[in-house]
Amino acid sequence: MKVDQEKHNWPKWIPKANIVAINLFLIFHIIAITCWCVPLDVPPFPQCRKLVRPYFLWAGLFQAWDMFAPTPWPSNSYVEATVIYKDGSRTTWSFPRMEQLSLTDRYFKERYRKFSEVIQIDDNDALWPDVARHIARLKSTPSNPAKTIILIRWFSPIIPHPDGSYQPEAWDRHVLLGYGVRPEDLQ
Amino acid sequence: MKWTLRSLPEAWNRFFFAKQSPLPMALFRIVYGLLVIATLLLLRPDWLAWFGTHAWISLQTMQTAEPGTRINLFTIIPQSDGWIYALFWIFLSSAILLTVGLFTRINSVIVFLCLTSIHQRNLYITHGGDTFLRLAGFFLMFAPTGAALSLDRLLRIWRGKTRSVTEQAAPIEPQRPWAQRMIQIQLSLLYFAAFCHKVKSPAWLNGTALYYVYHLDSLRRFPVPAWLLRPTMLRWGGWSAIALEFALGVLIWVKDLRYILLAIGLLFHLWLEYSLNIALFQWDVLSGYILFVDPADASRAWNWIKLRTTGRRVDPA
Fold first, then answer.
1. Taking phi first (over 0 means left), then psi (-120 to 50 degrees means alpha), and beta for anything else, what does residue B39 get?
2. Could you read off the pLDDT of B96-140 as tens digits, one per residue?
3. Where do runs of H (alpha helix) occur along A60-186?
4. What is the pTM (predicted TM-score) of this model?
5. 3-state SS of A19-88?
6. Please, what's the b/e burial string for A158-181 (b: 16 or more CB within 10 A of its CB; e: otherwise)?
7. By CB distance 3.0 to 4.6 Å, which of A100, A136, B17, B75 could disulfide with A146?
8. A147: helix, coil or strand?
9. What is the least distance, in Å, from the CA of A164 to any CA of chain B?
C-alpha cells in the first residue's frame, strides 16, 4: 500500500513500521475478539480465550453476547429487605420495580432492574453484605439505627401453557441473607 | 471476482487501508457522543449510589469479585465523593467535546478511559449496549473521527492548515478506515455470537424462549398485541430473531444485501425498543449501523440535505 511520505520528513522505515504495527494490531484483535465472544469450546477457542484474558480484562475488551440465552429469566422476581431497628420496629424496603414506575422513571432506574437480577443469583453471594450495608445506611437514623437487614428474594415462576395463555403463579420467597449491622457499617 | 492466495493481501489492504471519506465515522462519533452523554445523564441521580465511596458495591468487593489488573481510574483517584463527582464531570465534558469534535483525539481517549472505569467499578449494572459503547470507544481512539463534521476541522480551515477551494468549504481528505472496520467487525461479531448462543439453547430452538421474555413484568414497556403472544407467533418470532442475528453477523458483509439487512435490523431494534424496557440498548447497537453506510451514499445524502436546506451543494465541514 502507498504511504504518504510526501507529507512528512520521516525516515522511510517509520511509515512502514507503522503499517506493520497496525496490521499486527488488526490481526491480533480480530482473532482474539472472535475467540473470546464466539461460544465454541473446540480448539483453539478456549486456549485463545485463556491467553488473551489478562489483556482483555485490563483493556476493557471483555464481552458476552448471550442475550436471553441459553434461557431467559424464568420467573418474575424482585428483591426486598426487611429492616429491623434497634428499638425493635420493622420496615420493608424494596428495589425499584420497573412495572411500578412511570415510563420516564424506568429510563432512570433501569440499572436497578439489572442489579436486582444479578444479586438474586446465588453465585453472587459475595455482594449481599455490601447490599445489606447500603440498605442499612439508607434506612437508619441517628436515633434509631438499623440493627438487622434481611434480604429476601420474591419470585413467581413463569410456566408456559400449551395454548399460550399466561396464568401468574403464586409468589414464593427465599431468604438470601440475614445481616447484623455493625456501628462502623453506618459510618 | 476470482479469489487467490495472492489476492488476499490486496483485498486486506483495500478493506482496511484504501482511503475513503471519513463522513460515516464522523456521523458515528456524533451519535456515539450523544449516547454516552445520555447514559451519563440517565445515571446522574445515582452517580454516588453506584460509584461513590458508599456505593451499593464497594470498590474492594468489586476488586475481590472481579479480580485482575484493569484500567480503572477509580483505583487511582482519592476515595472521596468530591473526586468521584469531578471524574464524572470531566467525563461528561469530554463526551460533549467529542460530540462536537473539539480536541477529538484526546477526548476520545478520555471518554474511553472514563467509560471503561465506570464499567470496571460496577460491572453488575451494565447491559450489552454499554459493552458495545465501551468496545467501540476503544477503536474510536484510533480513528480519524475529527476529520469531518467537527470543530477541529473548522479550526484547521480557519488556521489555513486545510486547503479551502471555495469560501464556503474545503474538500474532506479521505482517511484510512481500519479503525472503522474494527467497529464494524465488532458489531457483526456481536450478532454472530448472539446467534451462536441461541442455536445452542433448547428454549430458543423449541420456540419457548420469547414466552418467558414477554411475560417478564420488569422488562415490559408498551403493550404487545395478544395475537403476537400466541405460541406459533412467539415460536416464529424466536426463529426469525436467530436468522436475523446470523444475517447481521455474516451476510451483512455481502454488499448487495447490506441495506436491506440494515433496514430489517432497524425495524427489529425499534420493535424491541417499543416492547422491552432496556434503556438505550437498542440505540447503542443501532449507532453502529451508520458505519455500514457507504461513504458515497452518505455524501450524496448530505449533499441532498444541504441542497434542500441551503440551496447549495456543499461538502460537510
1. alpha
2. 999 999 999 999 999 999 999 999 999 999 999 999 999 999 999
3. 103-119, 128-139
4. 0.92
5. HHHHHHHHHHHHHHHHHHHCCCCCCCHHHHHHHHHHHHHHHCCCCCCCCCCCCCCCEEEEEEEEEEECCC
6. bebeeebeeeeeeeeeeebbebeb
7. A136
8. strand
9. 5
Chain B closest CA to A88's CA: distance in Å?
25
Report the distance separating Cα A113 and Cα B216, nearest Å.
11
Of A54, A99, A107, nearest to B218 by CB-CB distance is A99
**Structural contact between residues B224 and B268, judged by C-beta atoms closer than 8 angstroms:** no
What sign has the CA pseudo-torsion B138, B140, B143, B146? Answer: negative
Task: Identify the DSSP state of B20.
Answer: B
Residue A77 and residue B235 in contact, taking contact as beta carbons nearer than 8 Å: no
What residue has cell string 487511582?
A: B76
Q: Which residues contact B43 (CB under 8 A, 6 or more apart)?
A: A111, B50
What CA–CA distance (Å, rounded) separates B259 from B276? Answer: 25
Give the rounded distance of the alpha carbon of B291 from its chain centre: 9
> Residue A169, SS3?
coil
Q: How long, in residues, is chain B?
A: 317
Q: What is the pLDDT of residues A60-104, one digit of tens each?
A: 999 999 989 888 999 999 999 999 999 999 999 999 999 999 999
Nearest to B122 by CA among B48, B182, B181: B48
The residues, ordered by sequence, that sit 6+ positions from A5 with a Cβ below 8 Å of its Cβ are A12, A15
pLDDT band of B59, cuts 50, 70, 90: very high
Pull the grid cell for residue B260.
436491506
* DSSP SS3 for A151: strand
Positive or negative torsion for Cα A57, A32, B249, B243: negative
Minimum Cα–Cα distance from A159: chain B residue: B212
Nearest to A133 by CA among A121, A143, A147, A120: A147
- For residues B245 and B199, what is the distance between their CA atoms, to the nearest angstrom? 11
B216 CB neighbours in chain A (<8 A) are 72-73, 76, 158
Task: Say yes or no to pLDDT of A107 above 50.
Answer: yes
Alpha-carbon torsion angle B287, B288, B292, B297, nearest 10: 20
A123 burial class (0-12, 13-18, 19+ CB within 10 angstroms)? Answer: exposed
Q: What is the pLDDT of residues B278-314, one digit of tens each?
A: 889 999 999 999 999 998 888 788 788 878 887 765 5
SS3 A180: strand
pLDDT digits (tens, 9 = 90+) for B154-164: 999 888 866 65
CA–CA distance, A124 with A117 (Å, rounded to integer): 10
